[in-house]
UniProtKB/TrEMBL annotation:
Keywords, comma-separated and alphabetical: Hydrolase
One GO cellular component term: membrane
PANTHER family, alphabetized: MONOACYLGLYCEROL LIPASE (PTHR43798), MONOACYLGLYCEROL LIPASE ABHD6 (PTHR43798:SF5)
AB hydrolase-1 domain location: 55-300
InterPro entries in alphabetical order: AB_hydrolase_1 (IPR000073), AB_hydrolase_fold (IPR029058), AB_hydrolase_sf (IPR050266)
GO molecular function, one term: monoacylglycerol lipase activity
GO BP annotations, alphabetical order: acylglycerol catabolic process
Protein name (Swiss-Prot/TrEMBL): Alpha/beta hydrolase
Length: 330
């Protein structure tokens, strides 16, 4: 089981701050109170009125910042919003402490129902890919298209490099790891995350690295950081063991929305070999394989991912009438 992670510490562009959370130029944050959960939403002003809505869902340990490189490239195509899942980014923990895939999916559904933005182009990475798969399966009315970047779908053969993240699901491991790494600097932690998540960590600029360290320091100071990580990791492991109609592969087969699958050849957390199985499971799928990408293709190769999303919209007849203006390439 290749449970996945990516702290939002890998944002790669300089930006002013709102409070203690980094916000890229053109972005804005707002807080949305819902029954049992409070969510922070990162958005960009749409290029014009009437663009179809999109919602981006990050992975384990990540945040809406993970989408800051991709969102501006889709400005002319969609009205972009990215969610901080409960307990991550700038969203506080859920009231009921439910960090399961179903619990996170319920938060996404509550937001979409309350905002009236659905159906959306739903885009998820890692844990966010599993969450988005479940949302698309149980609420097809909320999803126009589905784009999954290295989705955390169950694997029988575990990649050795994914084992430490999966171990966070075990009781007491997060606490022990916290003690073991108490003397690690934020710089050391960030380098470790980048080495694990990027196909080529050199893609991160020095400025991006400094921003990442700053964000890591902020996140480590949160009293619930490791609890949210451990409980969400446990949620992935539990989702992997579910069978029947609630199994993620069975739910993938139920997805009606046109689906774009993106896998990296150097992904150390979600095996590249599972890509073909995923392409067969989703009934209306197309597969983009990026041999040099790691676990976060939308951060490593945002232009390529944006072009693929544009092609998905064009192929499915959902490309807005944009004339000669588009940021995703033409």
């Amino acid at each position: 089981m290749s449970s996945t992670e990516l702290p939002s510490v890998l944002a790669t562009s300089a930006a002013p701050k709102v409070g203690s959370v980094r916000v890229a130029p053109g972005e804005r944050l707002r807080t949305v109170g819902l029954p049992g959960v409070t969510l922070t939403i990162r958005s960009r002003p749409p290029a014009r009125e009437g663009l179809p809505p999109a919602l981006y869902v990050h992975g384990l340990g990540g945040s809406s910042q993970n989408w800051s490189a991709l969102m501006p490239l889709l400005d002319g195509l969609v009205d972009s919003e990215a969610v901080d899942l409960p307990g991550f980014g700038d969203s506080p923990p859920p009231d009921d402490g439910d960090y399961s895939v179903t619990g996170h999916a319920r938060s996404v559904i509550r937001y979409l129902d309350s905002s009236g933005r659905g159906p959306v182009h739903l885009i998820g990475n890692s844990l966010g890919g599993a969450i988005s798969t479940r949302v698309a399966a149980v609420r097809p009315d909320l999803v126009r298209t589905l784009t999954l970047v290295s989705p955390a779908l169950p694997e029988l053969a575990v990649q050795r490099s994914a084992v430490p993240t999966a171990l966070l699901a075990l009781p007491g491991v997060a606490r022990a790891f916290t003690r073991f790494t108490k003397d690690w600097s934020a710089e050391q932690r960030v380098r470790g995350v980048m080495a694990l998540c990027y196909g080529d960590p050199a893609l991160v600029t020095p400025e991006g690295f400094r921003n990442a360290v700053e964000e890591m320091e902020r996140r480590l100071a949160l009293p619930y950081f490791w609890d949210a990580m451990a409980r969400s990791a446990r949620g992935i492991v539990n989702a992997y063991t579910l069978g029947g109609q609630h199994g993620l592969w069975r739910q993938a087969e139920r997805v009606l929305a046109p689906t774009l699958l993106i896998y990296g050849g150097r992904d150390q957390l979600v095996s590249f070999r599972i890509a073909q199985r995923a392409a067969r499971a989703f009934r209306d799928s197309r597969l983009l394989a990026l041999p040099d990408a790691g676990h976060v293709a939308m951060m490593e190769y945002p232009d390529t991912v944006a072009t693929a999303v544009r092609e998905l919209l064009a192929e499915t007849g959902q490309l807005p009438d944009i004339g000669t203006t588009t940021s995703a390439g033409s």
